[in-house]
Structures are given as structure tokens and as C-alpha cells.
UniProtKB/TrEMBL annotation:
GO terms for molecular function: 1-acylglycerol-3-phosphate O-acyltransferase activity. This is 1-acyl-sn-glycerol-3-phosphate acyltransferase. It comes from the Bacteria. Residues 73-188 form the Phospholipid/glycerol acyltransferase domain. Keywords: Acyltransferase, Membrane, Transferase, Transmembrane, Transmembrane helix. The keyword Membrane applies.
Amino acid sequence: MRAVLNKWLFIVYLLGSGTIWSTVMLLLYPFVGRSGRYALAASWCRALVRVMRVLPGIRCSIEGLEHLPKEPSIILCRHESTWETLAFLGLFPRRISFVFKQDLLRIPFFGWVLKGLDMVSLDRGSPRQAHVAVTREAAERLSKGDIVVIFPEGTRVPHDAPVRLTSGGVRLACATGAMIVPVVHNAGKVWPAKGWPTGAGHIRVVVGPTLSPAERSPQELIHDVHDWMQSELKKL
């Protein structure tokens, strides 16, 4: 009973604080620059991570941050739940820009804030046009010093699902020359791909060693990312 109560208290906090904080951020947006907007969003995400420890009892840790290169790079990450889209801004010490579906911009408050954060939107129309547009936008964010985060499986997947990568993230790295950083986690064990947190647990995020597009072919890169992800997921 207590676990159920904590779950619903967390949901109320998430939706309530998200709406209030989004309103505050939108009011402040005209007076702060790109860095200030990101700092406001990251501060809410860090608070959310702390609240998760108390209400649903979800703790988290991140390993391998020493692998992040100093220069802008591309993170290829497993997408298992809503958790990573909320927590990553609070966990990673560098500014990150998600590649997200353009449809999300239409969501009241959340979409408006997302637009102000100047990340990379993906219009799922023609694959060729989408790749060209994302490459251009991602290159702009990389030039600003961002780490671009891509979910190479294209959608949310259960934690125990086999790794199936699309080539978009690797092609983007080859087009921009940015280093690839593979990342896995086990958020799906406590926060499923669909729905809300199921209870207490420990989410581990593992950052892998960088891969250079200058030293490998696209096929080799996909193979190396796939094998590393598959191997690390078995340990989580």
C-alpha cells in the first residue's frame, strides 16, 4: 500500500512540478540565454532525481564518465523508459542535446520548454530528408560544444530486448567526424517503456569507451557499438 501511495505521490509531483517549473522557465526565457535556459531545465531534473530516491525509492548512479571526450561527441544510448529523458540532464556534467521527435514540440508546456532548449528535432517524413536535416542541426549543436544524444533503436524497448541498432547515429558521426560514446542503463527494470515506475530499485548508467569514425568503417562502428551494448546489458 505504501509503495502504491509513493508511486502516485511521485506522479503528482512530476506532473505538478513540471507544469509549475515549465511556466517559470517560459517566463524567464526572454531574459536568459541558451546556457541559462539549459541551467534552469537541468536544475529541475536534478531535483527530480533527488525526489525519486524518496518517493518511488529509485536510486541511480553513473559509471564511466571519464570516457566522455573533452570535444563535442555523439552518445548512442539505449532507450528503455521516460527516466533517461528526464534524468540525463541532471546526471551528465556536460550540456546534452537529445534528438527527439518533432511531434513532442506540440505538447503544452513540455514542448514549449523543449523548443527553447535548442535541441535537435526529427521530422519522421522522408528518411533522406530527415537524415539531411538532423545532420545539419546536430552539426550546429556539436559546433556549440554540445553532446548529442541519439537513441539508435528508434523507440523505447524493454530492458531484456535484444539490441537492434539503426544506422542513423553512426552515419551522423561519420558525416560530422564526432566521436561516438555508447551508453547503456537498466531503467526499464524499474520504469517500463510504457507507464510509470513500478517500485524501488537502483538504475545504473554505464558510459562506454569512445569510438572514432576516422578509424572504423560505418559497418565496423555499428558492430562495435552493438557488441559493447549487448555485453554490458547482460551485466545490468
